[in-house]
Design brief:
It contains 14 helices and two strands. By secondary structure, it is mainly α. Helix 3 crosses helix 5. The protein starts with a helix and ends in a 22-residue tail after the last helix.
Length: 332
């Protein structure tokens, strides 16, 4: 009997220790598509409704909301740090070079948050709102769907320097872009697939002007860019001025999420240098560009996998972070 009692005590201690270790390693929470199934079952429908209305009013909004997901996740992880305004010791990421006069759609996220606070107060994080809005935007534009992993919490900090240094720039070299991806746990397949987001949306003249006039710093254009296409771009993107003039990144199907982006790369009609290098600077990336250009299905399948992977970059879960009541400010 004594032996049985000792064995029972040992079993209980081992079980308690294992439970403690698990709770510490998981920090009390993990991501799941069903995270709000009980606490806010209408969350998906609310996000869908608000995003649908916004995209119906302005189709470009789909690309803008999708872009916010990228610019958030590459800085501090997917924690809604991008949404914070300056104040109370916070320097907003919105003023960083990749976001200033460029990132948009914050008002749509505010509308979603307001609706969710009415339906399920203090329940759905702003970080999850960004992820859900990105999925809805992609689907509304004709792209793939995926199960959004949920359960992120919101950061209490922002990183202005991180936004300036960790988001891939349109004039980066291939190796610099790949390094930016690998730094956050993404690989070359993710890089090429996720770059396909440029199949929708616009780019500013200032993001590609160097390709038209001074690609190598010698006053000469980028001769890897189709010259007829370059001439068309020059009509609205002069050598100086017009920095904010907008151009569709996929001139074939500008509002449709499809694989024409990859076909444009192969025909030397990719607008941004960061897109062009995928087809000219690396054999592996070129092979992936060809694969996705040949099959819209292959592109969609990989895109869904890669964006879920991106959405898992350093999420705050469990007791870390908070659920903001207002996406633009930390709770006080």
């Amino acid at each position: 009997m004594a032996s049985k009692s000792i064995n029972l005590i040992i079993s209980i201690v081992v079980l308690a220790f294992a439970t403690l270790c698990f709770s510490q390693s998981s920090n009390g929470g993990s991501l799941s598509p069903q995270f709000y199934a009980r606490s806010c079952p209408q969350a998906h429908q609310i996000v869908h409704s608000v995003v649908s209305r916004a995209v119906a009013r302005e189709p470009r909004m789909a690309a803008s909301l999708l872009r916010l997901h990228f610019h958030d996740c590459f800085v501090q992880g997917c924690d809604a740090s991008l949404l914070l305004d300056s104040g109370n010791g916070i320097v907003s990421e919105k003023g960083a070079v990749p976001n200033n006069n460029s990132a948009r759609g914050f008002d749509v996220l505010d509308q979603i948050k307001s609706a969710l606070e009415k339906a399920c107060p203090h329940t759905v994080s702003c970080a999850d709102i960004i992820a859900l809005a990105a999925r809805e935007s992609t689907v509304l534009a004709g792209g793939p769907s995926w199960d959004v992993q949920l359960g992120r919490r919101d950061s209490r900090t922002a990183s202005f320097s991180g936004a300036n240094n960790n988001i891939p720039a349109p004039n980066n070299t291939f190796q610099t872009i790949l390094s930016t991806y690998t730094r956050v746990g993404l690989d070359i397949v993710d890089l090429v697939a996720l770059s396909g987001s440029h199949t929708i949306g616009n780019s500013r003249c200032t993001s590609f002007r160097q390709r038209l006039y001074n690609q190598a710093g010698n006053g000469q254009p980028d001769f890897t860019l189709d010259q007829n296409y370059a001439a068309r771009l020059r009509t609205g993107c002069p050598r100086s001025g017009g920095d904010q003039n907008l151009f569709v990144m996929d001139f074939i199907t500008p509002a449709k999420f499809d694989n024409n982006y990859f076909k444009n790369i192969l025909s030397s009609k990719a607008m941004l240098n960061s897109d062009e290098v995928l087809g000219t600077r690396n054999k592996v990336s070129l092979g992936l560009v060809r694969k996705f250009a040949a099959s819209n299905e292959a592109f969609f399948q990989q895109y869904a996998k890669s964006i879920v992977k991106m959405g898992n970059i350093s999420p705050l879960t469990g007791s870390r972070g908070e659920i903001r009541r207002n996406c633009r400010a930390v709770n006080t």
